[in-house]
Amino acid sequence: MKRFLLLLFLLILSGPFLRAEDKVEEKRKSEKFSVSFWQFRTKGTSQTEIFGGISQPISFHLYLKGDKENSEYDLELDAVTNSTNGLRVVPGRNAYFGIIAKGFLWGIGRKSDPISFPAWKFWKDGVEGVFAESREGGFKVRFDLMDLYRGFPLLENQWLLLQGRREFLPDFVASELLSETKSDSDASTRYRAGIQVFGTLDNTWVLNCRVRYLSLGNWGRFGSETKEARAQREIGDKDYLTEWKLGIGYLGSIFYFSADAFLSRGLDKTAGNRFRVEKSIPISGEALRFDAGFYFPGIRISFFGFLPDREKRNSQGEILELGFVGMGSTPLSNPILGQVWGFYPAAWVTGSGLEKEDTIYPGKKSAGLIGIQAEGKMGEIRFGVRYTYISFLDTQAETSGRWSLATSSFSKDFVREAVIHISWFPFQPESDYIRLDLGGFESQDALGLKQWFLLLRLGAVWE
Predict the structure, then answer these.
(1) Is 262 exposed, middle or buried (0-12, 13-18, 19+ CB in 10 A)?
(2) From residue 153, how far is each of 53, 160, 184, 283, 457 by CA, in Å?
(3) Which interval of the chain is the signal sequence (predicted)?
(4) Rounded CA gap, 180 and 139, in Å?
(5) CA 90 to chain centre
(6) Which of 331, 358, 335 is nearest to 344 (CA)?
(7) Percent helix, strand, coil in the chain (nearest 5)?
(8) Over the range 65-82, which residues count as b (16 or more CB within 10 Å of their CB) and which as e?
(9) Burial class (CB in 10 A: 0-12, 13-18, 19+), 394
């Protein structure tokens, strides 16, 4: 409680000092501070029990942005308090300082990737470390020189997770999905580096291409140091992942479309059996995603989909090759699926290393997604609805590991989820607000899982 009061006191006092700075040299400057009160309740049923939980966090958001002739800063910080872990601070999408020289912004801190098209705006990633981004020309190039990747945690995908997953899960599921192993997010031997090119052509075509290399080092479940036979010294187990992405989009007057192709290659020990003769399992995967929509006065409707390949298995069901492995935050906005159940539509490199779950429950396993969403506004009211059908790929039989749309690639297991939200901004410009989210999911009858949630947020903003 003392830490919470101290943080609030310092943030309130910071306003006058920030406004007292010399503004002559500054081209732009923006300051914002907000407080939000959350009321969350969830309830679910399985074939054997009723479960649920309550969360009542308070969050604080600080936003500072400005630039001078040869420098700029973009700082977003979120702090959230809950009954379990007290006060936790999480950086926002951007939290960096940089200098401008030789046509580049040389920055240190967090810099997010360009915002995706509407259906995938929750799937976020970026650099956390040292980067250089070009400042001239229609297209930008960013070099991620040293990226201490940890899954790109944000308030939107961490606020419920920080309280703990166990109290929101049924008992028989918690014992399987929850691990007592602590996150190795501070492991010093991991790093990521990459390059990406992005921009628009004639305000119509959007291009986003990138290549990233992630060295897992000693990060992850089986990532501990091993003795190398020839050198007779301890080194990391050389797990790594390389990701290529090619994205293209079209922005018309009433129609837009985007398509992204992902390619992942690497080696992994974290998902294999440590007693196998083979010392690592190859990673060789592909995935496609799309988003297509229409603009109408006051409303936008889009259709979206995502499909990865699956792992290659032999006739005994043994994994010979991992399929697509994703990076970044979870693609879904649904807090109970993304944070409580820990669902990702493939094997994923999260804040705990490379994770893949062989489970009948919604977890980190290969799945195809298809859905529809609509967003709009009427005066002071903002509203939205999103529906997603998740069909899990069949990984129990012998598989080739190739990307396929064939119905035989899918199992009978599925989850369908939906979320609706409505917000009221009583003052202009949009600042203080009241927002209500209502949603849930259900599985196939054989599994018998159903869970819903209600989330009410009240926020006040000072600029």
Answers:
(1) buried
(2) 23, 12, 14, 24, 20
(3) 1-20
(4) 45
(5) 14
(6) 331
(7) 10, 55, 35
(8) ebbeeebbbbbbbbbbbb
(9) middle
In sequence order, which ranges of 248-405 are alpha helices (DSSP H)? 335
pLDDT tens per residue, the chain (463 residues)?
444 443 443 343 344 333 333 433 445 678 999 999 999 999 999 988 999 999 999 999 999 999 988 999 999 999 999 877 789 999 999 999 999 999 999 999 999 999 889 999 999 999 999 999 998 878 999 999 999 999 999 999 999 998 888 889 998 888 788 865 444 444 556 889 999 999 999 889 999 999 999 998 766 554 444 433 333 344 445 789 999 999 999 999 999 999 999 999 999 865 445 545 566 789 999 999 999 999 999 999 999 999 999 999 888 878 889 999 999 999 999 999 999 999 999 999 998 888 998 889 999 999 999 999 999 999 999 999 999 999 999 987 788 888 999 988 999 999 999 999 999 999 877 778 999 999 999 999 999 999 999 999 999 999 8
| 349 token code pair | 């490199």
Does this model's pTM top 0.90? My answer is: no
The four Cα atoms 187, 177, 179, 357 give a dihedral, to 10 degrees, of -50
Helix ranges (DSSP H) in 20-110: none
Q: What angle do CA 231, 218, 174 make, to 5 degrees?
A: 150
* Beta partners for residue 319, in sequence order: 313
From CA 345, how far away is CA 366, in angstroms rounded?
A: 5
> Residues 210, 194: contact at Cβ < 8 Å?
yes
- 168: CB partners within 8 A, 6+ apart: 42, 51, 52, 53, 160, 336, 340
Picking from 376, 373, 352, 375, the residue whose alpha carbon sits closest to that of residue 364 is 352
> Would you put residue 266 in left (φ > 0), alpha (ψ -120 to 50) or beta?
left
438-454 residues labelled b (16+ CB within 10 A) or e (exposed): ebbbbbeeebebebbbe
Domains of the chain: 2-462 (2.40.160.100)
Considering only CA atoms, which of 388, 308, 399 is closest in space to residue 348? 308
- Contact between residue 250 and residue 227 where contact means Cβ atoms under 8 Å apart: no
Q: How many CA atoms lie within 13 A of 267 on its CB side?
A: 10
